């Protein structure tokens, strides 16, 4: 009689992390310098290092440190949501994950969503990746999801992000005075949005043939 132990593993058992590393490259949606792919559990250490970096979380609404357990739970929840699409941003030149972007709180009645962006690799700041990722996400929102409006909120003193959004066609819609708190002071919150008709009037910035 063979007794199967509860902690036994197949002879050729491979850790999940190794399976991810050896898996073929996944390209979900691509532009000129970047492409989007799904986030995987194996990305957890890198994502956790970004969100706990003061240079990153200082520009977000995130508060408090995130450990591996919470970050992993968030990644695992992505495939279950019907109202959130989150992508990993990968630089083509290095084939490395450099950030994340997403369309959140998607409302299929009003055909609207809230946009989010994080270039976590600080060495990739000011290199045009954020602008292209924003434009690529908008193309996905309007062309693939048939949305009509994409909105966002941003700290009023985060001028680097504001320039990115304006380059992508977002229009300033309002200011919530002293609505946010960071670094010991109250900060205004700016609201931006772009409508489908406004996006369609913009010059083509990502050739159709580059889209997977």
Q: What is this structure, in a nutshell?
A:
By secondary structure, the chain is α+β, with helices and mostly antiparallel strands. Helices cover 28% and strands 30% of the residues. Mean pLDDT is 87; it is low at 1-14.
Write the layout of secondary structure elements.
Blueprint: H1 16-22, E1 29-30, E2 34-37, H2 44-51, H3 54-57, H4 68-77, E3 85-91, E4 96-107, E5 112-119, H5 129-144, E6 149-155, H6 159-167, E7 171-182, E8 185-195, H7 196-200
Helix pairs in contact: 2-4
Number of domains: 1
Q: What is the strand tally? A: 8
Please give the largest β-sheet: 8 strands, mixed
CATH superfamily: Gcn5-related N-acetyltransferase (GNAT)
* CATH architecture designation: 3-Layer(aba) Sandwich
- Give the uncertain stretches in residue-range form: 1-14
Instruction: Output the radius of gyration.
Output: 19 Å
Rounded mean pLDDT is 87
CATH class: Alpha Beta
Strand content: 25-35%
CATH topology title: Aminopeptidase
Shape: globular
Distance between the termini: 54 Å
Structural commentary:
- The structure is a single chain.
- The protein is of the alpha+beta class and 212 residues long.
- The chain has one domain (16-210): Aminopeptidase, CATH 3.40.630.30.
- Helix content is 28%, strand content 30%.
- The protein contains seven helices and eight strands.
- It has helices at residues 16-22, 44-51, 54-57, 68-77, 129-144, 159-167, 196-200, and strands at residues 29-30, 34-37, 85-91, 96-107, 112-119, 149-155, 171-182, 185-195.
- An eight-stranded mixed sheet has the order 1-2-3-4-5-6-8-7.
- The protein is globular and about 45 Å long.
């Amino acid at each position: 009689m063979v007794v199967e132990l509860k902690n036994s593993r197949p002879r050729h058992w491979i850790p999940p992390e190794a399976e991810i590393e050896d898996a073929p490259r996944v390209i979900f949606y691509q532009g000129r310098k970047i492409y989007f792919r799904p986030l995987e559990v194996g990305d957890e250490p890198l994502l956790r290092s970004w969100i706990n970096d003061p240079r990153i979380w200082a520009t977000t609404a995130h508060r408090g440190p995130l450990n591996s357990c919470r970050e992993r739970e968030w990644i695992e929840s992505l495939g279950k949501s019907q109202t959130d699409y989150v992508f990993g941003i990968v630089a083509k030149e290095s084939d490395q994950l450099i950030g994340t972007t997403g369309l959140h709180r998607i409302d299929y009645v009003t055909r609207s969503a809230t946009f989010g962006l994080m270039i976590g690799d600080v060495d990739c700041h000011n290199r045009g990746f954020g602008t292209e990722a924003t434009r690529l996400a908008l193309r996905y929102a309007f062309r693939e999801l048939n949305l009509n409006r994409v909105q966002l909120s941003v700290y009023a003193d985060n001028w680097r992000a504001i320039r990115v959004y304006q380059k992508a066609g977002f229009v300033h819609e309002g200011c919530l005075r002293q609505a946010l708190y960071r670094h010991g002071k109250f900060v205004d919150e700016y609201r931006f949005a772009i409508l489908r008709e406004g996006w369609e009037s913009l010059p083509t910035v990502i050739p159709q043939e580059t889209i997977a």
